[in-house]
Amino acid sequence: MSSGKPSFQNYDRDEAEKYSGFLLTNAPTAENFIDRTTDPDAIRYLVEEHTIDVDVPGAGTQLKEAILTSSTAPLDVKQTVAQRNADLKDMIVPETVERNARTALAVGKPIVLYGPTGTGKTYFAKQLALETCIDYEVHTATPTWTPADITGSIQPETKDGEISYHRRAGCVSQGIQEAERYGDNYAVIIDEITRADISQVFGPLYTAIEDQDQVIFRDDEGNGLTLNDNLKLICTMNMSDRTVNELDNAITRRFAMIELSQYGREAREELFDEWIGELEPGPDRNVDTDALADLFEQHHRGINDGTTTNSEGGIMEFGPMHYVDVTKFLKHACTPDGPYSGEANAAVGQAFATYVAPRLLNTASLPQINRIASHYETLDDQYRFDMSAPADLARRQADAEEREMGVSAYE
Question: Which residues are registered as beta bridge partners of 159?
Fold first, then answer.
């Protein structure tokens, strides 16, 4: 490493190594080097060996942006820079799901990840974006969305009593601009698409998906924005909102529909072991981790497949990702100084009542609510954990539903 005044000739890796000491202390020179180099290994060396994008004093985000917009920097190096603060673990979705999603994106198809709540759709969408793109943005659909939220709109602006108008890009148009700026793949994740009126909101995109010459928006300079292969569009859809058969045919024809269903038992056990393992060492928290793992499995199977004491089958589809919130609750609540110190059995039931049961009850019909309550009462009998809290919650909701139905019946 040299900190002497540089005399750049080739702007290659050799000179990056020779003058790395100077580059790591002089932001303008470092930015100039990144802009001028045509050697991908030079940028790789500075990023991977010296984290130049974050370690140069006073550089702010200028070196990060220089690398992300460089035509020389390889995609994986750009991903390293863009994703330094991303805390996403290895993919755990079934291999077929990952392969199908990757293939659809590679051939230019936008995708919809659909499945029941708790199957990790949004988490997988982020993982997929980080694996295939430089970076991503997440936008959550709402009932108030219009096509402007997707493509863009013209907005008035008042200054010194004068009204002017400027163009504001929608989330997809913004993604196109970012892909153009970075010169590589960029992802837009639209979460919970069925919260919006899909036919209305996505209408302007339908033609553009099939005809990439179709301009979907023009910026303030009049430049037309069109869909291209560098923009990766990833959507998620909760099956409790709507089934695939209820979707507009226009979207199912133009989007690749990727299902995330229940995880197999082996995959669930792997997840439960990982999350519950964070509670150890156990003596401080007094949580029976083996029993907790079994509780998770029996709770999950009872909701999805039905209990051994009931022949009606499953209550509803419910993914395993919800149980991580239970372990996070216990990790804090059952420490020696925590709110449930010495009361681990009560804390487990309270965690279920706080995180899991409300999510089940949110979309449940009255018969389902009654079965959920019975399921919690059965678990309360089977385990030392006090599951009366989620059982009581379900019973109270069932009572409220019955009262409301009774009032309606006499109206």
Answer: 162
Calculate the CA dihedral of residues 23, 25, 28, 31 and round it to 10 degrees.
40
Give the predicted TM-score (pTM) of the model: 0.80
**CA–CA gap between residue 126 and residue 146 (Å, rounded):** 24
Q: Which sequence spans correspond to the domains of the chain? A: 13-83, 95-154+165-259, 265-408
DSSP string, 48-113: HHH-HHHHSTT-TTHHHHHHHT-SSS-HHHHHHHHTTT-------S-HHHHHHHHHHHHTT--EEE
* pLDDT score at 410: 39
How many CA atoms are closer than 13 Å to the CA of 216, on its beta-carbon side?
Answer: 31
pLDDT tens digits for range 225-238: 998 889 999 999 98
Can you tell me which residue has the tokens 């709770």? 299
Phi-psi region of 244 (alpha: psi -120 to 50; beta: other; left: phi over 0): alpha
Give the CA diameter of the chain: 90
Architecture of domain 95-154+165-259: 3-Layer(aba) Sandwich (3.40)
Tokens of 387: 């599951």
SS3 content of the chain, % helix, strand, coil (to 5): 55, 10, 35
Residue 369 belongs to what H/E stretch? Answer: helix 366-382
Average pLDDT over residues 194-207: 84
